[in-house]
Design brief:
This protein has about 210 residues and is mainly alpha-helical. The chain has ten helices and two strands.
Length: about 210
């Protein structure tokens, strides 16, 4: 997570990203206060900032909860996140350090090995690949926006991974992205990442149905 976020904000965001908090779940301020050994004041300040970002929402007499997305908002955020991911790949091709490139290749390799083994649980490894691309862009402001839009979409991404049938295609797309970034082909890296982030209408409709169930 970006350095601009407080420790409490990072904790709440990680709970969402790792699936322990889902859209509609209440945020337990008392539990967070106990975990960090603080009063509820800094927690409420952190939640207010997350509310301003649209990550959480206040409910009358029910406190704060993880915000969901309407179908229209989902499509808008997917379009925005795709553009941001393309920008991250573009800048990664121009700025990535050798150690960042190695971390990116390692992440792509780990995902590919999981797919080749036919194992379940590819979501976390796919997420690690995308986070490695974001790190390569060396732009803190862009990474922050990617993190925040990604958190809004995480329930969708998890549902999508459960429906994914084209993991082999994803492996090939990862390879294309890594190759373009390593070779410094910024425009190609942007195009490859945007193509990778595009979702077919059939998958989108399936995920919307699953999220409504």
């Amino acid at each position: 997570m970006a350095a601009q976020l407080s420790e409490i904000q990072v904790y709440v965001l990680r709970e969402i990203v790792e699936g322990r908090l889902s859209p509609g779940d209440r945020i337990d301020e008392a539990a967070i206060a106990s975990r960090f050994g603080v009063s509820k004041t800094p927690i409420r300040e952190a939640i207010l900032q997350l509310e301003a970002r649209g990550v959480v929402e206040k409910r009358p007499r029910a406190g704060a909860a993880v915000a969901g997305l309407t179908p229209e908002e989902l499509i808008e955020f997917l379009e925005l996140h795709s553009e941001l991911e393309g920008a991250a790949a573009y800048h990664a091709a121009r700025r990535a350090t050798p150690s960042q490139l190695q971390a990116l290749e390692d992440a792509a390799g780990a995902y590919e090995a999981q797919v080749a083994a036919g194992a379940q649980g590819t979501y976390d490894l796919n997420l690690a690949f995308h986070l490695a691309v974001f790190a390569c862009c060396n732009n803190n402001a862009l990474q922050l926006e990617l993190n925040m839009t990604g958190v809004r979409l995480v329930a969708y991404f998890r549902a999508q991974e459960g429906l994914r049938t084209g993991t082999g295609t994803a492996v090939d797309e990862h390879r294309d992205i890594v190759r373009a970034i390593r070779e410094g082909r910024a425009d190609d890296a942007r195009a490859a990442m945007r193509q990778h982030a595009e979702i077919s209408s059939d998958i989108l409709l399936d995920v919307l149905a699953l999220m409504k169930a």
